[in-house]
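hey all, quick one before standup. I had two proteins in the batch that finished overnight and I want to keep them in one place so we stop losing track of which output belongs to which input. First protein below, input sequence then structure tokens straight from the run.
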Amino acid sequence: MGFRFRPTDEELLLHYLRRKVLGCPLPADVIPVADLARLRPWDLPGDGDGERYFFHLPATSCWRRGGGGSRAAGDGVWRASGKETLVVAPRCKRPVGAKRTLVFFHRGGARSDWAMHEYRLLPAATNPPPPHHMSGRTPEPSGWGGCRLFKRPTPAHRRSPPRIRAATARRRSADDMPSSPSSCVTEARENGGEEEEESSSYSAASNFP
């Protein structure tokens, strides 16, 4: 029987990233450290196209700045999608971390199906430390962040090869031509744009570890 690791936002922040920063033992050794600035998403360790979780310590200026800026990764770039959202612990009614969605773009600007949730702790999450914090241990560098890497389903309009899509577009264009010069029937078409929106769910975390 397999084990599937899929923590909530609060669990990832409080039970894993917080403990990593404070130098506490982790509940399970299931989140490796990865250099996100050096590797493309499919080159990172993990199970095929499934979800992957990593700790990362920003080593380049574009990763250290964070925010809505782009982050170089291998021969591509991660670009922010939407605004950063706060992760709130319901019992104390205060935000303990923040989450931002990023999408990976290939060199040349082509959008990929890979996306990432980037997590960072807020000061409220590290004060006070967990009750079983080992005072003799040295805390990890405070720049540690966490991320969840995943692959989105390919939209239907992007599944066909470019050559087939171009031929289909030409056929549709020919079909739209008037059947005779005397035709005065005009067809109005409305193409609704696609808009992707990432939302953060504020799952309940009863209290700090």
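OK second protein, same deal, sequence then tokens:
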Amino acid sequence: MAYLTTVLDLQTLVEADSEFHQL
């Protein structure tokens, strides 16, 4: 489960990073 959690965390970071660059 730790691996799955890491993948979800990375996806969240990528989405947040994309939104940040759109500002």
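Flagging for whoever picks this up: Residues 2-22 form the longest helix (21 residues). The helical segments are 2-22.
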